[in-house]
Amino acid sequence: MSIKFRESDHTYWLGDKQLISVTQLMKKHGLSADYSAVKADVLNAKAERGSLIHKEIEDYVNCAAEGFTDELDAFKALMKEHKITPTESETIVHDDLVAGTIDVIGRCPSGRIIADVKTTATLHKDALAWQLSIYEYLFQKMH
What we know:
single chain; alpha+beta
């Protein structure tokens, strides 16, 4: 059975069963960053910008498409500096309960990497560590 991501409400479906997203799981357990103090219009504008950057990186990884943002240039420089070759983008991982989307999977001299692209002003390292560890767990279960 294949997993489906429904863009309209950001939900994951395995057949007729809705799975909990990694984001929902982390929020439920108090592990995600809290943006409740940010005004809705500011949050929406930042989310739009983040989506644009994610799409640009996805197009670069999957199609070698060049973009126009400084963030794509920074992504390419980081990949080159660390000798990372991105191999997949926007890869859905899941088990029977939880699902999420890995932004970038790649190869480097020490093996495979799983990365999440962040466009926030502050990097919430604990939340990111939890997110990536859940992605790694789900990736391992699938492979």
